[in-house]
Design a protein that fits this description.
Elements lengths: L3 E10 L6 E11 L4 E5 L6 H9 L6 E6 L2 E2 L10 E4 L11 H11 L4 H14 L15 H13 L5 E5 L7 H18 L2 E6 L2 H7 L2 E6 L2 E6 L1 H6 L4 H6 L6 E8 L2 E4 L2 E4 L8 E7 L5 E2 L6 E11 L3 E8 L2 E8 L10 E5 L6 E4 L8
Parallel strand pairs: 3-8, 3-9, 6-7, 7-8
Antiparallel strand pairs: 1-2, 1-4, 4-5, 9-10, 11-12, 11-14, 12-13, 14-20, 15-19, 16-17, 16-19, 17-18
């Protein structure tokens, strides 16, 4: 096992005026045995960052340390890592056992040791009854477990996962997430997991790195990222539905946005132009109080245990999540919304960064 240190990592494609910067200086310290999720939208640089750790992409500048040694100039095979890709990349003519054992055979590991390692990995991943099957005889989830087993048998110091669940349906993704969690608890190997799915990020991560346009917006526990987003990007990306963000003018305990003057339960952190954030689940539907806002209902979505109510706050769209047992509002209804001071988030209007 090994700690990972990313120090001022930058990546640029090309040279001169046509060069394109894709990673703009990422710094992160990852402890031995941590499970870190790198999350962000498509094109934000998360897979590029992972591939630089793996040695599949050259670093333009900065240093990557794995287990206390600089690995910038080491080949992937010399970094003691194992990678699981989005594509299972199994050999179709080989059995599950042979797919898992192939890398060890190439490394000339003794046959008895190979069998011991494959049997152990198969037991962890519940593949023992499938070792004689070919990939075409397996489900998508089983194939991904074989790909993970192939990584496990190498006994690396670092696991790298590049969107390994993207090819699975929703039910299999949820099941495989649980298997990855159990796998990490059992092996405690330092892991980096790339995904664009915030649900995967929130459920798997010990800490998560939120990427945006090649920059690290925030690095913290899922609770920290959800409860104290560092920027409007993080606030809008983490959480489903995303946080409501209102741009306007603060004046003490009043906030003006979209032609509406909203009373606040407590004074804003400062006067002037700010962005106010409130998560859909953190509003009190139909409640009166010191910070009551009036909304007009547009559309209601029923999702079983909950309802999503899409409203208008003056000219601004606003989403509220309510309990599914509450009577459903009707389009056109005007409903009071209670807000609490501790549920409000404030961001600088020019930098988009959090304001305390």
């Amino acid at each position: 096992m090994a700690a990972i240190s990313l120090r001022a990592i930058k990546k640029t494609y090309g040279a001169g005026p046509k060069s394109v910067k894709v990673i703009h200086g990422v710094d992160a310290e990852i402890s031995d045995g941590e499970f870190i999720v790198i999350v962000g939208p498509s094109g934000c640089g998360k897979s590029t960052l992972l591939r630089m750790v793996a040695g599949l992409e050259e670093i333009t500048s900065g240093e990557i340390h794995i287990g206390g040694r600089i690995v910038n100039r080491l080949e992937p095979s010399e970094r003691d890592i194992a990678m699981v890709f989005q594509n299972y990349a199994l050999y179709p003519h080989m059995s599950v056992f042979d797919n898992m054992a192939y890398g060890l055979k190439i490394a000339k590991v003794p046959l008895a040791e190979i069998k011991t390692r494959v049997d152990k990995a198969a037991k962890i991943l519940e593949l023992g009854a499938l070792l004689d099957r070919r990939p075409r005889e397996l489900s998508g989830g089983q194939r991904q477990r074989v790909a993970m087993g192939r990584a496990i048998v190498r006994q690396p110091t670092v696991f790298l996962f590049d969107e390994p669940l993207s090819n699975l349906d929703a039910k299999l993704r949820a099941q495989t997430r649980l298997e990855i969690q159990k796998l990490h608890r059992e092996l405690s190997i330092t892991s980096l997991f790339v995904t664009h799915d915030q649900v995967e990020a929130m459920t798997l991560a010990r800490r998560m790195m939120v990427m945006n346009a090649g920059r690290m917006e925030q690095f913290g526990t899922p609770e920290e990222v959800y409860q104290r987003p560092a920027s409007t990007f993080v606030a809008g990306f983490i959480g489903s539905p995303p946080m409501n963000l209102l741009r306007g003018q603060a004046d003490g305990a009043r906030f003006t946005t979209g032609g509406q003057i909203l009373p606040l339960p407590a004074a804003a952190p400062r006067n002037g132009e700010l962005i106010l954030g409130l998560r859909p689940e953190h509003a009190s539907w139909g409640a009166d109080g010191g910070g009551t806002w009036e909304l007009q209902v547009d559309v209601v979505e029923t999702l079983g245990a909950e309802r999503l109510v899409y409203c208008r706050l003056g000219e601004t769209l606003f989403t509220v999540r309510i309990d599914g047992t509450l009577p459903p509002p009707r389009p056109g209804d005007r409903v009071p919304l209670g807000v609490a001071a501790e549920r409000l988030h404030w961001f600088d209007a020019s930098t988009s960064q959090r304001v305390e």
